[in-house]
Amino acid sequence: MTTTRTVNTETLSIAYHEYGAADGWPVILSHGFPYDVHAFDDVAPTLARAGARVIVPYTRGFGPTRFLSDKTPRSGQQAARGSDIVELIEALGIERPILGGFDWGGNASCVAAALWPDRIGGLVSYAGYDIIDVNGQQHPTTHALEKVFWYQHLFQTERGRECLSQYRRDLCLILWREWSPGWQFDDATFARSADAFENPDFVHVVISCYRHSLGLEPGEAALQAFEARLAQKPRITVPTITIDGSNDPLKPGGTADHAKMFAGFHEHRVVDAGHNVPQERPRDFASAVIKVRERMTLMQMRIQR
């Protein structure tokens, strides 16, 4: 059974779903844009049955999560979202959880694992080493991929901000269909997640994310040191499994070549899915988390010998 709770960090009142026993091995699952916590509705119970305590937070700008101060910038930059995960860990008093995420959630989880490896036990990342190369993204990719990225180009303009504000559900539904072309979801499934887009800061955070990631909007001064470290492409040292969807238009060719960015245990998997792997193939996502847990346990046993 899931429980919806809130906890305050330095910046946010974070709403989250919790599954499993309070003394279970900890897991934090982070969703992306334009999704929400329901992406893990089938993953989290599977992990709870395997003995995990599973925390599934609404990211900043989504659902009931709120900024504590009107003065806080509504930033969507990767260092802010990665910091949110670490502050959530601290607020809940969790010891070295496994992080699992996709899209924004995969990015934030990779950021947290790269910058704060001593706080993180393991990682399951959809789309490999998912840390944004802000400098690199100021230059074009292939013409075919630029076409897929139409929404990112739209969001660089005030017309795009107005479009997202007025037509957020319609626009996000297009993205769901484009990014997971083989996934047959119904209207109720989309509507359940789309309610999270009504957060008053949704548009601000989304626009900020894509303008910062393309180098067209400065980030918060307080986070600049973190962004500078991320620009150096630090390798991730915690035990990691990366996953690709074989039918994801955003990741043509997959991310098997990211292996060099992982300094510790690393396994790469490819599943028959589009972009939203946790919702399309929940058993595969849960299996990866459980495998990381097993690897962490094995490593701990070796240390104790």
Automatic annotation (TrEMBL):
Top-level lineage group: Bacteria
Residue ranges occupied by any AB hydrolase-1 domain in the UniProt entry: 26-277
MF annotations from Gene Ontology: hydrolase activity
Gene3D superfamilies hit by this protein: alpha/beta hydrolase
GO CC, alphabetical: membrane
Alphabetical UniProt keywords: Hydrolase
One Pfam family matching this protein: Abhydrolase_1
Cross-referenced InterPro entries: AB_hydrolase_1, AB_hydrolase_fold, AB_hydrolase_sf, Epox_hydrolase-like
Signal peptide: none
Protein name: Alpha/beta hydrolase
Organism, as annotated: Rhizobium sophorae
Lineage: Bacteria, Pseudomonadati, Pseudomonadota, Alphaproteobacteria, Hyphomicrobiales
